[in-house]
Design brief:
Elements: H1 27-46, H2 59-77
Length: 85
């Protein structure tokens, strides 16, 4: 569940939601616009996110990961000092 972020610039320190509407020249249209935006904010907060179900990695992805680790290991082992005879 998401809650309104209190650090949001639209929320005052008292917890009052502030919506500035100056899109239209008419006060009535600006009020309607502000109310519509408030409804959108409320709707966006009430949407519940689906929980991710963890899945196991496939056999192919495990093999690919281990092959990559082996290649990197060989590459790094070659970076050591060269033995002189």
């Amino acid at each position: 569940e998401r809650l309104l972020n209190l650090n949001d610039s639209r929320i005052s320190s008292e917890g009052v939601v502030i919506i500035k509407a100056q899109r239209y020249r008419s006060q009535i249209k600006n009020k309607e616009d502000a109310l519509n935006r408030l409804v959108e904010i409320i709707k966006s907060v009430t949407i519940q996110m689906k929980l991710r179900e963890p899945t196991k990695p496939t056999k192919a992805s495990k093999t690919k990961r281990l092959e990559g680790k082996a290649i990197q290991s060989r590459r790094k082992s070659l970076r050591g000092k060269v033995e002189e005879e």
